[in-house]
Design brief:
The complex is a heterodimer.
Chain A lengths: L3 H5 L3 E2 H11 L4 E4 L6 H7 L5 E4 L3 H15 L3 E5 L3 H15 L4 E7 L15 H5 L5 E4 L6 H13 L5 E7 H5 L1 E2 L17 H13 L3 E5 L2 H4 L3 H11 L3 E3 L14 E4 L6 H9 L2 E5 L5 H4 L10 E6 L13 E4 L2 H8 L6 H13 L13 H12 L3 E5 L3 H9 L8 E2 L10 H11 L4 E7 L10 H6 L5 E6 L4 H10 L15 H7 L3 E5 L5 H10 L4 E6 L25
Parallel strand pairs in A: 2-3, 2-4, 4-5, 5-7, 6-7, 9-10, 9-12, 10-11, 12-13, 13-14, 15-16, 15-17, 17-18, 18-20, 19-20
Antiparallel strand pairs in A: 1-8
Helix pairs in contact in A: 2-3, 2-7, 4-5, 4-18, 11-14, 12-15, 16-17, 16-22
Chain B lengths: L1 E9 L4 H11 L3 E9 L4 E9 L4 H9 L4 E8 L2
Antiparallel strand pairs in B: 1-3, 1-4, 2-3
The chains are: A alpha/beta, B alpha+beta.
Bound molecules: thiamine diphosphate.
Chain lengths: ~550, ~80
């Protein structure tokens, strides 16, 4: 309860300091779910101007905060109680860790004296989350709360961003104290690469006949898109993108060869295999991108640029590593190049492997639907995906205009990401047209969040591609486990249209190709949250595909 | 392969756990460990690790931990 006398005396409870510090950090929205140990904070929220979004599962609080952060570039904040509330956050924290998203996770904890006694709803969330946080704190004194919040936010945002956890024991939240002055010396200044290394990189680039940019999500995280596009127009270098970098360069350019890797474009994979110099920008040689690592870009020398020095040389040894701020390094390296034959070759690859949308039959062809929807939604669109085949179709066929317009669980690959992330993104960008592309498996992982969409009238458009199975797993069983189908059938799915309506959403279904144009129009014209259920062929696969453990040069494609 | 690492870190709750956890998760086994917290609130850890991965890389992974001030790889005697 607000005790105005104490506040005037400069004394506030730990919970009040927490809320005040979040406000001072310019946080406007937090996602959470109350419970015993976090109740003092919920009490302090009553007097706060923070907008609290009550989700229906703590995992969704963390994932919504992640979507909010990705779409806005600001820190995302989530809040949960001790014990089960805290453990439910973990998937979302891990998601933010593997995709380097600035996230602040605040958990209530049992009172200090009870910690370590197996008290009711006590779990060691600090210990449990150690491998998936950038940093974490247990706050031991009310006077430290504000300083810890400021330090946590600074850590989460700085350098390579990531999740930071604050565990707040209930007695610390309740006791009153003056604030300890905030120290601001904790964050080290960004490193700069040595001039000699930069010069050597410039020479390597000037001498290369077939240089290729391998662009990663770090470009988006560093907000380095402008610098990257300047670099591309100065050098004329062709490029490939990881899943998380899609949108980094002009989608229509013939020198943008698209996504590399397992479900990448053949043009991208062939270019990587034949380049003589790879400039890696904010990417980390993830196995889904490289395929069999020791056959990846076999003829290439490597210049690796990343803000995180620990990424350089982690998986592939490099000729030159440049650790530091991406925009600055890219500007230093930029130079006009004489690589016309290589550019012509890459543009020809781009042309040769262009996607086709004229699939035979009357079934709905998901790639064409996604393509058309993205074009109709235009520049205001933000697409949020779940995980599976539909996620790969979005990556391949959605016209992605900017990195931040594509939210996808890249590192963790967490089914259940799509709806909460869309919800968070829409709150961060009220003017955007946020579209969630999900599957019949994934949507059930956070279906309860339809209630959150309804409660706050968050106008997310959901496209549910229903193939009556766990499609991506089914595809692998078909191709790599001799068609021995095991636990992938979802043919007894609920009636999703009725289900969405029960949550108070507008909903409708389509199953034939000629219904697609009207469905797209209806989706985009509906002012509130809406779900479109799309029945697709259960046997549809994602093509092309590099089989697991194989080289990116060995793509399978039987789509024809 | 045996590696010796010297790590200085700020003495904060969980800091030593973070160092040990990072070493183990990144593919090293801890063979010997010595740690002292000085009056300057800095903790000095000496780790003898066994593993086939690049110890210099582990050094950089330790160095990015928030509490870690320095992480130096010494050639094993
Ligand atoms: C939380 C979680 N559990 C399991 C998986 C493994 N997995 C990856 S894709 C997939 C199937 C997804 O099915 P659906 O959402 O219907 O999408 P589809 O592949 O059919 O498009 C599964 C089970 C995962 N990625 N995340």
């Amino acid at each position: 309860m607000a005790d105005t006398g104490a506040i005037e005396a400069g004394l506030r409870s730990g919970a009040q300091w927490l809320v005040a510090a979040l406000e001072a950090e310019d946080v406007d929205t937090i996602f959470g779910y109350p419970g015993g140990a976090i109740m003092p904070v919920y009490d302090a929220l009553v007097d706060s101007r923070l907008r609290h979004i009550l989700v229906r599962h703590e995992q969704a609080a963390a994932l919504a905060a992640d979507g909010y952060a990705r779409a806005s570039g600001r820190i995302g904040v989530c809040l949960a109680t001790s014990g089960p509330g805290a453990t439910n956050l973990l998937t979302g924290i891990a998601n933010a860790y593997l995709d380097s998203v600035p996230l602040l996770a605040i958990t209530g904890q049992v009172a200090s004296g009870l910690m370590g006694t197996d008290a009711f709803q006590e779990v060691d969330i600090f210990g449990m989350s150690l491998p998936v946080v950038k940093h974490s704190f247990i706050v031991r004194r009310a006077e430290d709360v504000a300083a810890v919040v400021h330090e946590a936010c600074a850590i989460a945002r700085s350098g390579r961003p990531g999740p930071v956890l604050i565990d707040l024991p209930k007695d610390v939240a309740q006791s009153r104290a003056p604030a300890r002055p905030v120290q601001h010396d904790a964050i080290p200044a960004p490193v700069k690469p040595a001039a000699a290394a930069l010069a050597a990189a410039g020479m390597l680039l000037a001498r290369s006949a077939r240089p290729l940019l391998y662009i990663g999500g770090g470009v988006g995280i560093a907000r380095a898109e402008m610098a990257l596009r300047d670099f591309v127009s100065c050098t004329g270098m062709p490029s490939v993108c990881t899943l998380k970098a899609l949108g980094a360069v002009n989608a229509a350019s013939p020198y943008n060869l698209g996504m590399l890797g397992m479900h990448g474009s053949p043009a991208a994979n062939h270019a990587v295999q034949s380049c003589d110099l790879l400039i890696v920008v904010g990417a980390r040689f993830d196995d889904r991108a490289t395929g069999k690592l020791d056959t990846f870009a076999p003829g290439a020398r490597v210049i690796h640029i990343d803000v995180d020095a620990a990424e350089i040389g982690k998986l592939r040894s490099v000729d030159i590593g440049l650790a530091g701020a991406l925009p600055w390094i890219l500007a230093e390296l930029a130079q006009p190049l004489q690589i016309e034959p290589w550019r012509v070759h890459c543009a020809a690859l781009h042309d040769l492997y262009r996607s086709r949308y004229d699939a035979p039959g009357t079934d709905i062809y998901a790639p064409a639907l996604l393509r058309d929807l993205s074009l109709a939604a235009g520049e205001r669109a933000i697409v949020s995906c779940d995980v599976g085949q539909h996620q790969m179709w979005v990556a391949q066929h959605w016209q992605i205009e900017a990195i931040h317009a594509h939210l996808t669980s890249g590192g963790l690959g967490a089914m259940g990401y799509g709806v909460p992330a869309a919800l968070g993104a829409q709150l961060a960008q009220p003017q955007a047209c946020v579209i969630c592309v999900t599957g019949d498996g994934s949507i059930m992982m956070n279906i309860q969040e339809l209630a959150t969409l309804r409660r706050y009238a968050i106008p997310v458009k959901i496209v549910l591609l229903d193939n009556a199975c766990l499609g991506m797993v089914r595809q692998w069983q078909e191709l790599f486990f001799a068609e021995r189908y095991s636990e992938v059938d979802l043919s007894d799915n609920p009636d999703f249209v009725a289900l969405a309506r029960a949550f108070g959403l507008e909903a409708f279904g389509i199953e034939r190709r000629e219904q697609v144009p009207d469905a797209i129009r209806r989706l985009l014209e509906t002012p509130g949250p809406v779900l479109c259920h799309v029945r697709i062929d259960p046997r549809a696969n994602v093509w092309p595909l590099v089989p697991p453990g194989k080289s990116n040069g060995e793509m399978m494609d039987t789509a024809a | 392969m045996i590696h010796r690492l010297e790590v200085t870190l700020q003495d904060a709750e969980g800091a030593m756990l973070r160092v040990l956890g990072t070493a183990e998760r990144r593919g090293f086994r801890v063979r010997a460990l010595h740690a002292v917290v000085g009056a300057d609130a800095l903790c000095r850890m000496e780790l003898t690790l066994e593993g086939s991965r690049d110890a210099e890389l582990l050094g950089r992974q330790l160095a990015r931990l928030h509490e870690v001030r320095t992480a130096t790889v010494r050639v094993a005697p």
